[in-house]
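Continuing the series of single-chain predictions for the mutant panel. This is the parent chain; the variants come on the following pages.
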Amino acid sequence: MSVMLLDIATVPDFELGARLYALHDLSEKDIARVMLTKRREMGGDSELLGQHMLRIAAISIFLQDENDISLQTSAGPQADEINHLQFLASIIDQHKPEIITWDRRAILPLVNFRCLYHGIRTPLAENSVASDLMTELSASDGKASASLHEVAVLCGFPGNEGMSVETILTAYLKDSHELIRANLELNVINTCLIHLRWQLVCGEIDQSLYASKVQVLKEYLQKIDQTHLTNFVNAWDVKQQ
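Parent structure:
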């Protein structure tokens, strides 16, 4: 079976915020500010909106099958939300993968809500194989677990300190889609590496196969002419010295 490591970047659903709070004359930045203020007034997390109040800004996928690996991202000013969802659906329909996430609670429900909004088939409807690394490692609902970056560093990988909710929103409003894409891609790479190490720890693969898979991943990243991936591999090499 193919394995899909999945991560999604989100921003507030500005159109929903405008309709809910009669904010049609405000900018997207101001609409987001009001939505977060309303969330705090209702006793919610000061930085996080509910999944039903977010929209997808980008999707990154690291796909593994028996013969190949690939890193793919749907992001950029030309890609509206339906394009992102169709991108995800096309890969799921073609490969029927096991979906692996870091913090499934923040990813899979969001996909369903956005498909509900657009009235299109959710790509998750016929895919029942999904697991969440954070939940497996913490043996809980993930509320007190470590971050992806912290666990990656624990395992000897470079990690990715990532972008905050506010930083992603700022990049989105400034059309800095490459920053969002780079952040997501580093997330799915770290998730993939932790997943491989967890397979080793659980006895699903032996040390030789683990080392081989990690080396194939490193060589793949080295072949991609992208600064953030090159920097990641260089930092990885330094940690291994």
